[in-house]
Amino acid sequence: AKSLYLSRNLKSKHFFYLFFQVKWAKQQRILSRSKRDYLTYTQDSKSSKIFATKGGLNDPKWPKMWYLNRGRNMDMNVQGAWEEGITGKGSVVTILDDGLEKDHPDLIKNYDPSASYDMNNRDEDPMPRYDQMDTNRHGTRCAGEVAATANNSLCSVGVAFGASIGGVRMLDGDVTDAVEARSLSLNPQHIHIYSASWGPDDDGKTVDGPGELATRAFLEGISKGRGGKGSIFIWASGNGGREHDNCNCDGYTNAIWTLSISSATQNGHVPWYSEACSSTLATTYSSGSNYESQIITTDLHHECTSNHTGTSASAPLAAGIVALTLEANNKLTWRDMQHIVVLTARPTHLLASDWIINGVGRKVSHSFGYGLMDATTMVRLARKWKNVPAQHICNVTAQVFEKPVPARSTVTIQLLVKECNSVNFLEHVQAKISLTASRRGDIKIDLTSPSGTKSTLLAPRTHDNSHAGFHVWPFMTVHMWGERPFGIWQLTIHNEGKLLATMTDWEMVFYGTILPPEQTHILPTMNINQNLTSKDEHEINFKSGECRVTTAKCLGLLLMLCAIIPYF
């Protein structure tokens, strides 16, 4: 619509008219966004006077960084990448949060002003606002996990201590769709990785996601960021476990554009705060019970903390591992990175009751995704990685017309997929669902693929008393990664309430490729045969039904490996 604007030239005192065209306008509303750490009642362990350690890294907290240095398949296998000269050099990470203490002595060497901005005050200084409670410490803590300087006799070591680190101050003020969009799209040709440890309230009753502008920023990022290779968005999966929340009701972690990361405790258990959902891709370590260690990182006032917690601490660790992987191969696309995570994540030592083996032989869990991220294996695989084929999208609409789901009953709806618009090998799968319910929290939704993989899209939420139901909500699962889409899909609606629910619409959206990704995989020896050494290079070529072992030591594993090749 064209508008007439009356302006006045104060100097000449003449009026003149300007015509301009409004392409889009929307009233911005303040959004509720929560940081995904949890505050303990224990006092933080802080130290401003630092002393060097004996041997190895001289960062004083290094011996206590159990999630990086335990070995025995009990850490995230970062040291192997460091030993191969990979430190994240050339990778640029920004933390979307409440600010960044850019002059922290353990961060200043890697601080990148081009990856930083203050969206709250609209200036270029991301420094946090200080208060008596240190409520804006979150971003500085996350940044230290990624890129705290190594071997400087200070505090801790970042996973990617050679990477550049920036911060976007955007949570310490009114958060709107426009604020989120500007943050997600900051300098996308310079910033490679955006790490976010926040989201809609983890209260077990909220259903919310990115608005129109933020959605556009995500789409622009994956299509145009990093010179067309795509910005990489890392997201904390959520801390609503105690509230029986489900991260598929969070439109950020539930999006195909984000690499959603969950947490595991020091002993490999599901943390009490963790949310189980089918959109979680992988896991890193974080806090657990009171007797388990937490995450060590930089803190406000140039200090150091041993008490960083929640999925807030998990996402930056993942961002650091991704930064290492990008140094090994900076040609990786955003989808390449997700493929590499799926192929290398380790389910070993992660304890959950819901591990299943999907249709291509991979273990996957609603609590942990495909398992613990493995930095060294990701780096080695990245070096030989060939970019995956182009993404195709297939939409299949089910003929559902007012399908009632009576109280305390289960209804299963089937959808036959015969052809799928060049999607032959699956990546992400969405079920866009519309339903009405007298109480939304009583609904449970399962999706079963033609290969028999059953994925829970929505679990009951005890605090969700909403009458709103769902309107074209895109429930997403990564559990069918690598499977074929053809055959009968089953959507099962469980109504655990006392009143009627009604299914009004259902559309399946399949994302994937026409051909299987052609790769030479370096297998993580710790997962295959403990007698094989890390110096041996064991290559398995996966291509259109071919399984060829190129190292003699792998011959005994041939049958097992061919049985689990993902693209058959």
TrEMBL record:
InterPro entries in the cross-refs: Galactose-bd-like_sf, Kexin/furin, P_dom, Peptidase_S8/S53_dom, Peptidase_S8/S53_dom_sf, Peptidase_S8_Asp-AS, Peptidase_S8_His-AS, Peptidase_S8_Ser-AS
Active-site feature positions: D97 (charge relay system), H138 (charge relay system), S312 (charge relay system)
GO cellular component: Golgi membrane; trans-Golgi network
EC identifiers of the protein: 3.4.21.75
Source organism, top-level taxon: Eukaryota
Annotated catalysed reactions: Release of mature proteins from their proproteins by cleavage of -Arg-Xaa-Yaa-Arg-|-Zaa- bonds, where Xaa can be any amino acid and Yaa is Arg or Lys. Releases albumin, complement component C3 and von Willebrand factor from their respective precursors
Main localisation: Golgi
Domain P/Homo B: 387-516
UniProt keyword list: Cleavage on pair of basic residues, Disulfide bond, Glycoprotein, Golgi apparatus, Hydrolase, Protease, Serine protease, Signal, Zymogen
GO molecular function, one term: serine-type endopeptidase activity
Gene3D superfamilies noted in UniProt: Galactose-binding domain-like, Peptidase S8/S53 domain
Subcellular location: Golgi apparatus membrane
GO biological process: peptide hormone processing
Listed cofactors: Ca(2+)
Matches recorded under PANTHER family: FURIN-LIKE PROTEASE 1, ISOFORMS 1_1-X_2, PROPROTEIN CONVERTASE SUBTILISIN/KEXIN-RELATED
Family: Belongs to the peptidase S8 family. Furin subfamily.
Protein name, as recorded: furin
Species: Schizaphis graminum
Lineage, top ranks: Eukaryota, Metazoa, Ecdysozoa, Arthropoda, Hexapoda
